[in-house]
């Protein structure tokens, strides 16, 4: 749907979450991000370890429309 290679999307997500991971044959990440109250725990499906990650406050905002010319 996003018109991006799965490896590209996975690399971006892992960099934003500050963690490591891999894709299996079904191209699913080996970590699960859930929400418990106000915390976002990231759990490894392989070893079961869990840690809290920070919520992303603001994402990329695309500028649309005309731009002012630089002088």
Short synopsis of the structure:
Keywords: Initiation factor, Protein biosynthesis. It contains 1 helix and 3 strands.
Write the layout of secondary structure elements.
Elements: H1 6-17, E1 31-33, E2 40-44, E3 50-53
Antiparallel strand pairs: 1-2, 2-3
Question: Could you explain how this protein is built, in words?
Answer:
- Helices cover 17% and strands 17% of the residues.
- The chain is α+β, with helices and mostly antiparallel strands.
- It has one domain (1-71).
- A 3-stranded antiparallel sheet has the order 1-2-3, with no helix packed on it.
- The longest helix is centred in the N-terminal third of the chain and has 12 residues, at 6-17.
- This is Translation initiation factor IF2/IF5 domain-containing protein.
- Residues 1-50 form the Translation initiation factor IF2/IF5 domain.
- Keywords: Initiation factor, Protein biosynthesis.
Keywords for this structure?
three-stranded antiparallel beta sheet, 17% strand, alpha+beta, 71 residues, flat, 17% helix, protein biosynthesis, mRNA binding, initiation factor, Transl_init_fac_IF2/IF5_dom
How many domains? The number is: 1
Beta-strand fraction estimate: 15-25%
Mean pLDDT: 76
Helical residues, percent: 10-25%
Based on helices, strands and strand pairing, what is the structural class? alpha+beta
Point out poorly predicted stretches. none
């Amino acid at each position: 749907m996003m018109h991006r290679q799965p490896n590209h999307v996975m690399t971006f997500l892992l960099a934003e979450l500050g963690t490591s991971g891999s894709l299996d044959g079904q191209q699913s990440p080996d970590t699960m991000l859930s929400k418990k109250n106000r915390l976002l725990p990231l759990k490894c499906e392989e070893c079961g370890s869990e840690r809290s990650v920070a919520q992303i406050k603001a994402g990329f905002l695309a500028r649309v429309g005309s731009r002012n010319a630089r002088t």
